[in-house]
Amino acid sequence: MEATELELIQNTTEKDIATFAHQIVRELFEGRVKTGNQEFTYYSTIEQCLAKIKPAEYLRRARYLVKAGNLEKATLLYLLDFLQQLRNYGEISEEIKNEAKPLLDEELQWYLNHMQLAYDYHDQRKYDQALDSLELIEEFYPPFLVAEKRLLQSFCYTKSLDKEMRSKSLECIENFNTLESVNEEVDIYERIQNRLMSVYAHLGMIKESSKAEYLLMQNLRFRYQYDENARIRLNIIRRTYNIVHDCKTSEVFMKKAIDYFAPKDENSIPTSLKHYYIALVNYSSILTINGKFEMGYEYLGKAMNLENDFKSFPFPRRQILYNNFVINSFLNNKLSIKKCIDALENLINELPVIAERLTYTSNLSVFIALNGETEKAINVLLNEVRTQNVEHDIEGFYKFRSYTNLAIFYYLSGDKYTSIKYLNEVEDIIPHLNNSVYYQEHHNIIVTCVNENVKISPFEWWNCVHTRKPDFKSPAWNFFGIGYILASLSNWDTEN
Prior knowledge:
elongated, 25 helices, mainly alpha, disordered N terminus, Serine Threonine Protein Phosphatase 5, Tetratricopeptide repeat, single chain
């Protein structure tokens, strides 16, 4: 054997050999198929294989079915590809749209037009208009297209704190939680499970959320090694790990998501700006919550830099980053109380009446109180609480944050009776919250301070919990032990 041939064999990996063998088999098989005029079977078989091993490659699957002559199913897969493009890029490639245009009949074009309009409204935070557009899509389409409609409806419903709307966010997708219910479309089934994780959490059903996570993880493990979309899905779960898991565990897996979505080196750009951005926002938030304020600030800076470097890219839910930046900057002594107030007021003024606006308003009211204006803090927060009917909050977090802060403000204003009333309102909520051990300890100390009639200024209240208990369980107490309840948020959107 020649030396060059021996070197070639020695430097050939098992993966190279497998790829080469696969190519040879494919060419032989393709030659036989064409000779026997069996293109339909050949291309249909390839599409069926892709549906199992790389189900989210809709465009590739559609093109194989066009070659097979199965135009009906190919058309539906083109539609799924269009919806995928809308989720990822906010628009549909004109070239691919023209490719599929001859296949779309009037009804399918109607479906696409209204789905695209709904996505546009959703991205503009016009959730009522998005729901109106979705209502114009009848449900005589194949189940997996109906499921796509219902998924987007579910996202819109959870933007409200209204109990009925939150319930609808589950009701509209819970009948699509099996593979059979979505015509064996694996990617849609997995997105449903991913969505259920978030919806159950928003309804305070953590056990059910955990079950949905388990089912999704088990489904992904079969394709993780060879399907890039399965790896993306797994790391979407990791970047939202705090839906189900405590802050300490979540930090570990959110870092894994950062490492996966990050650019390969400092001179390259991320494969997906959207996924890397959300991972940065969420990881910086969990670092802040875990009391690692300086590290959190570092990763917030990376997210800010990403926005500056790609100004035209539609980064999702930027308000979460801006809120978190204000909170973390104050904790790092980089922003004054006055600047925090100005920044949060500007952020809130840009938002419609959506659930997370209550969280930002609660944060704002804390800084107003720190500025010595407890009566104003009460009015600002109470107006938002009433506007959003927070007493109907099923999730619990919104009611807990706002009522605890109101209890503190009323106490500092001299109204102990109303303070105790609000503290009593949250007692039954705390055990059901994620990281409840920290919230319970915080609550117990606040109740003690109120019962002992501690005389303290609004500014001094910031340290009242830490003064009584400087350390508790982990460095996360640096955050959870702040006298007021502040919120650093994560983006739990799970689409890809």
